[in-house]
Amino acid sequence: MTVDEVVKFVDQMVFEKTGKHLDDIQIAVVEGTWNRKSYDDIAHKYNLTNNHIADIGSKLWQLLSDILNEDIKKSNFCSALERVYYINSSQNPNIYCIGKNPYFNFSSQILHQSHQTDVKSNIHTESSLSTYDLTFAPEIINFYRREKELEKLSDWIFKQNTRLISVLGLYGVGKTTLVKRFVDLNLNNFAVVIWISLRYPQSLDLLVGDILNVCQKQPEETLDKRLKQLFSILCNHKCLIVLDDFQNLFISGNFAGQYKSEYQDYQNFLTMITEFKHQSHVIVISQEQCPEMKCLEQELYPIKCLPLSGLYDVDILRNSDLQCQESWLKLINLYAGNFKDLKSVISLIHNNYDGDVGEFLSENNLLITNQMQSRFREIFNRLATQEKDIVLSLSKFDIPVTREDLKQHSRLSIIDFNNGLQSLQQRYLVTKIKNEKILFQLHLVFREYVRNFCQDNQI
């Protein structure tokens, strides 16, 4: 068993008994114990006291003892859990092996009862469907300060029955982490959960076929018939499908959200998700917005968009071993609360400044690391020619600028200018600021990159 499987197994047992999922400290105790770590090791890793970890562990072992009807202690946790896990795996029909990861579904009977439909012909063949495929979902170690966003996702899905949700924002702001946390907290509320990574995208035909295989359905030969099979499942069961890295379906060098020819079918698929009545949900995670992710008539077509910006909280640096804690927030603000950029900068501060944030900041320089250069180079190269023109113009301003002032520094036609400005906002590279006048501002770290590395790219 992997650590991820152990945490999910224990979490589902605890949830079945108490109605509550494991909290972060309980997860830390389970992970540390499974990896044969002492309470001292666990406490040191998470900046907690040994007594606090021991107290949490003692209560957790007692709870598991009550659940499993045997004496569970830290010393026998690993052997007891492995034995119970595989006994249940061999005997319980609600164990499904997706990829290489088995997940035990304690709440399958409850799920089946709550998701039964009036379709009598399917009552024996489809009411027992319960399966999860999280093979390509990331493991979440730490989660910070996104409680409001989690509540919003829960409200949209469980109260408003929103069929299509897009979680959008620049790389590194925590989109995937947020959605995975939501999945971990609500796994038992769905009959089917499938996480699909589009880092290396495939045709919709193959993707739907893979989903049907996970749901133990033999795919039909044509895409049209496969979609009918899939929507039958979406209608009869409460399913959650996550499409991560959706921006990889879009054309580079064109305006945001324009599909590559081989992936045009995805556009129709998202439209079908919103227009056809069913009880399931699709969450799209993307760095770019496409037209299907927004709708003016949300009462007719339930679509919600959740844009994420960086996280401005010193807690995200609590395990970084950096010095000068009073300067941490300034460092976070300098890099717009972006996890990936901060991770890159933290490594540099450790290597060149011996972890002293104050010394690094004293040079008054927003430093672009090699890793950041590589990421921003990819982003810049994806821009349309019209967008590059606007970006180069915006990079010359230190303060937000009006659309009229920006237009004066551009050689574009009014059509190209407006389309380019809209597209940059859909990529979350340009922010619109509502004041006495509408102002526009280039993402500050990206602006520094453009100033230092893109001035030879004059349009």
Question: Can you describe what's shown?
Answer:
The protein has about 450 residues and is an alpha/beta fold. It folds into 4 domains: about 1-90, no CATH class; about 95-305, P-loop containing nucleotide triphosphate hydrolases (Rossmann fold), CATH 3.40.50.300; about 315-365, no CATH class; about 375-455, Winged helix-like DNA-binding domain superfamily/Winged helix DNA-binding domain (Arc Repressor Mutant, subunit A), CATH 1.10.10. It has 19 helices and 11 strands. The chain has a 6-stranded parallel β-sheet with strand order 3-5-6-7-4-8. Helix 3 (about 40-45) crosses helix 4. The chain is flat and about 75 Å long. Residues about 90-125 have low confidence and may be disordered.
Fraction of residues in β-strands: 5-15%
Helix- and strand-based class? alpha/beta
**CATH second-level architecture of the largest domain:** 3-Layer(aba) Sandwich
Strand order of the largest sheet: 3-5-6-7-4-8
Radius of gyration: 25 Å
What attributes does this structure have?
3-stranded antiparallel beta sheet; alpha/beta; 47% helix; 459 residues; flat; 19 helices; 6-stranded parallel beta sheet; 4 domains; Rossmann fold; 11 strands
SSE inventory with pairings:
Elements: H1 3-18, H2 24-34, H3 39-45, H4 50-68, H5 77-91, E1 95-98, E2 101-104, H6 108-114, E3 131-133, H7 147-159, E4 164-168, H8 175-186, E5 192-197, H9 204-214, H10 223-236, E6 239-244, H11 265-275, E7 281-286, E8 303-307, H12 328-334, H13 339-353, H14 357-361, H15 370-382, H16 385-394, E9 401-402, H17 403-408, H18 414-426, E10 430-434, E11 438-442, H19 444-453
Helix pairs in contact: 1-2, 2-4, 3-4, 7-8, 9-10, 16-18
